[in-house]
Write a structure and sequence with these properties.
Strand content of chain A: 15-25%
Radius of gyration of chain B: 20 Å
Radius of gyration of chain A: 30 Å
Largest interface: A-B, 34 and 31 residues
Largest sheet of chain B: none
CATH topology of the largest domain in chain A: SH3 type barrels
Structural class of chain A: alpha+beta
Structural class of chain B: mainly alpha
Shape of chain A: elongated
Number of strands of chain A: 20
Number of strands of chain B: 0
CATH topology of chain B: Amino acid/polyamine transporter I
CATH class of chain B: Mainly Alpha
Number of domains of chain B: 1
CATH architecture of the largest domain in chain A: Roll
Largest sheet of chain A: 8 strands, mixed
Number of helices of chain B: 18
Number of domains of chain A: 3
Order of helices and strands of chain B: HHHHHHHHHHHHHHHHHH
CATH superfamily of chain B: Amino acid/polyamine transporter I
Number of helices of chain A: 21
CATH superfamily of the largest domain in chain A: PRC-barrel domain
Oligomer: heterodimer
CATH architecture of chain B: Up-down Bundle
Strand content of chain B: under 5%
Distance between the termini of chain A: 48 Å
Shape of chain B: globular
Amino acid sequence: MPLFGYCFLSDALKRPVFDPTGEVVGKLTDAVVVRGDQLPRIAAILVSREGRLVRIPWADVEIFNKRILSTRLAAAAVEPYQADERDLLVARDILDKQIVDANGAKVVRVNDVRLDGYNGDAVLTAVDVGLRGLLRRLGVERRSDQVFSLLKVDLPANLIGWQYIQPLSPKLNAIGLTVPRQMVADLHPADLAEILSQVSREEGQNLFTELDVKTAADALSELRPERQVELITAVEPEKAADILEEMPPDEASDVLADLPSEKASEILGHIEGEEAKDIQELLSYEGDTAGGLMTNAYIAYSPGTTVARAIERFRADADSIEPVYQIYVVDREEKLVGTVTLRELLLAEPGAPLGALIKRKPQTVGPDEDAKGIAAVMSKYDLVAVPVVDADGRLLGVVTVDDILDGLLPSPVKRMRRGA
Amino acid sequence: MAKRWWRGRWRQLLILGSLVGPGIITANIDNDAGGIATYSIAGAHFGYALLWTMIPATVVLIVVQEMAARMGVVTGKGLADLIRENFGVTVTFWLMVGLFLTDLGNTTAEFAGLAASMELLAVPKYVSVPLGALFIWLLVVKGSYRMFERVFLGICLVYLTYVVAAIMARPSWGEVVSQTIRPSFSVNAAYLSTMIGLVGTTITPWMQFYLQSAIVEKGVRPEQYWATRVDVIAGSFMTDIVGLFIMVACGATLYKQGVGIESAEQAAQALAPLAGKYASILFAVGLANASLFSACILPLATAYYICEAMGWEAGVDKTLRDAPQFMGLYTAFLVIGSLIVMVPGAPLIRIMWASQVINGIMLPFVLIFMLKLVNRPDLMRGEFTNSRFQNAVAWSTTVIMIALTVGLVVTAFVP
């Protein structure tokens, strides 16, 4: 049992390691970490001896605490460390790096690592992300404590249990736990988007590829275009297609429009027929016109559909479409006859046909209408969604108020909104 | 939502519009109050004798900025981030302490510039400085920065008046050209400190952090990197051409008349060949704009990268409780900077000039870190490390700046 209780990594780093005769083997430089039973554990310590690194297996460590470090091996008998790219080193790969605190839903920087003695092993139980860890690294923890106690302020420890840490580098994933992965998936998409936008491109891509399709799609919707492109190009085309299918078609087409055309058509090739057609259609319109802003996922029934049947079908259809404000009534040629609000639908006689509920000619816009024009129509007629029809009156899609807000607010606000 | 909304605000500061690239923006923030003062003093006190420094300074500026930009593109991380991750907390901490003091000096210089320009328009500094600090605080916190950014960039065109003024002052162009291409050197404290100041104002430590973060935020990919390179090189030329013409304008007027610059009134006279009796007003507008522009970005950028390095919460939306270090730093810059300037009888021009000398002294330290990072094949994916030429330029700059600093200290104490 080399380690009783606990010890912070920085308390041990750079301290001399003694052999049984009291000779100094060298200074503790790093430690190799491997996956343990529940938490990662230290497999060996690395000591710099005469300018080279030597490796002492944990089994040969006699004492490991903040006062003394010693080994059972004779100083002359220690073996040199054969550098291996795959090794995870706690000081090199974890200290000072950013990680995701899945519990607090934010990106933090590791100031120190806490090791606890457990069944003869030294396991990594927590990372210190607080001021205390910083001061300890600077070697002034005790003095700061004295200063702070004079001020009658308690210097709080800010530890995050290893079970809540989602690593950002692939190397650390190897010792990762399944708990944080689940917690990350359960984060609010907006929080996840903020995390993804705070870390470097590579770290973001690494985290993103780990997410399941649904979570990835939700997070992607919240990000600004440059980040979307970075992330979606990092995943396999098949998975990218699945993620885009999860998103509303108008947002998916926005993402595809920003991709290099080769990549976009590769991904589009993996998207299933109906969905791909919708997206392709949207891609053909200019970005800031009604055609570019609209979604073509909407609910439309024929005038002859009864209210009861419409409600029944709505239960099934509305699940995949968001948000639903109105039901569109279209004839056989897909020409828009009128709109029925959900309220009207619920209050009507179950036997009545939808056509009978239509009160007046619907307000529509053409696919070339710009955001200002659409907003004018919405504002005049108090609409939250306005149908887009072609010259023959055929329903092409729907622009909702949230699509239009982005285009109308001054650009900084827009950037902030998308900006994560 | 609110949190992201505010983070977005920081991002706007960095992105500053897609029309003008980060290189050109950085170049314009670089020609701040300290810059104008230093170029003016160099021209007024030494005539054309220091013009030659602009050629090596431009080469170095391009090499250094390009390094920062390349690191941003390849690693996707800010410079403070990289330093912390690769050199540990102790080194990072002391570097940040140094940068804090340097940028406090710079912020003070911006307020000194504001005070000096407003005094030309007969507004006392006890009015202009607090109002200016409040204006900046509101601009950043209320988020109307972006609207003003265009105005700031537009008014930066005032710098071009130096080009016109320099031409109208009818300098002997033969002398200007020969002094630009022929190095001269003398060893005395005034010459050495002015030279350090010139390099320090051209290649500031903070702009490397700012530029790299701006490029990371823009999400430039390695295959689009050529465009960023063009942007950075264009920006570097812009900084130095403006600097060169300020020196020529001052050299052709103030130096010839034997006027040393101790006040903004005197510095403004370099524009007299162009604007006549309106020279003061023109100078005041340009200087006030440069001061406010940089005073908006500098404290915020510094507070941000210090927090990035130390792993503290950052963002202007945060309350003092959520992000005490960030808010503390940001407020400290604005409050201390403006208070120093408001000390009765504070030598405004000297403050602006001294801040740039401190920049120059701090620069080699930042360069050493940048060089160590940019030459790491594991960080730079092998192929993006420095070329031999880039290393030669950057390392010799580091050595020369250290030598100049040592020379300055020696000459200052040994008469």
